[in-house]
Amino acid sequence: MEKILVSIVEDIAEIREGLRFMINQTNDFSCLAVYENTADAYRGLLSNPPQLAIMDISLPDGTGLDCIRKLKIAGSTTQFMVFTIYEDSEQVFEALAAGASGYLLKNASPGKIAEALRDLQDGGSPMSASIARKVVNSFRASDEQNKLSTREMEVLGRLAKGFLYKEIADQLFISTGTVRQHIHHIYEKLHVQNRTEAINKIFGKQG
Q1: d(Cα 109, Cα 72) in Å, to the nearest integer?
Q2: Distances (CA, A) of 152 to 41, 165, 185
Q3: Which of 14, 31, 38, 65 could form a disulfide with 23, with the two C-beta atoms 3.0–4.6 Å apart?
Q4: Helix, coil or strand: residue 82
């Protein structure tokens, strides 16, 4: 059976060698190359492309996400799985926008890593459970936002920052009564009872 070629971009030697060992011990994979920085990774992944690449985010000379972005622009067909300690939503969505197809946290077990690589090769988008939940919650929040008008989002955004009704009215050049009316409509659309529930429903699930 022809093995799936995997390259590794990771600056910490212990993690890098651990991944290399795990991949070479797995029947269907073979480690093609390892890289410690983005410059070497860019050159190597273009000239000697694997089917899959495991990419760290924080590297000595830049970020793995920039490297993925440049490789995709250059026409790389390698499938990238980000392998990192970062689990904030901003990093996750930046990785996906850059061209990564998977996102795994470094606390994943060897079995989980191998399973994720197989999923990636089969066209899937493997993610750690906590990362997948953030993605789902973000889409849910986006759906809720779409229920509100631009003005209602402006009012709710100011409520989230702690402004009083009168301050919001002054900032938006409307009356306090109009602010109250907007808030009433927000509660109805989001099916919530108070400002805390409304704010959490829109803003509280994206961090």
Answers
A1: 28
A2: 47, 13, 8
A3: 31
A4: strand
Question: What is the span of the domain harbouring residue 187?
Answer: 148-203
CATH number at residue 37: 3.40.50.2300
Residues 153 and 198 in one domain: yes
**Contacting residues for 94 by C-beta, under 8 A, at least 6 apart:** 65
Query: Tell me: the pLDDT tens digits for 26-59?
Result: 999 999 999 999 999 999 999 999 999 999 999 9
Q: State the amino acid at position 205 in one-letter form.
A: K
Q: Are residues 69 and 12 in the same domain?
A: yes
Q: What's the DSSP call for residue 164?
A: -
Number of domains in the chain: 2
**Long-range Cβ pairs for the range 61-65 (8 Å, 24+):** 61/37, 62/37, 62/38, 63/38, 64/9, 64/38, 65/91, 65/94, 65/95, 65/98, 65/100
pLDDT per position as a tens digit, 55-72? 999 999 999 999 999 999
Query: Cα angle vertex 98, ends 93, 99, to 5°?
Result: 105
Residue 18, CB-side half-sphere exposure with 13 Å CA sphere: 14
Yes or no: say if 113 and 158 are a contact pair by the CB < 8 Å rule: no
Which residues are within 8 A (CB) of 93 and not within 5 positions of it... i.e. 6 or more apart? 138
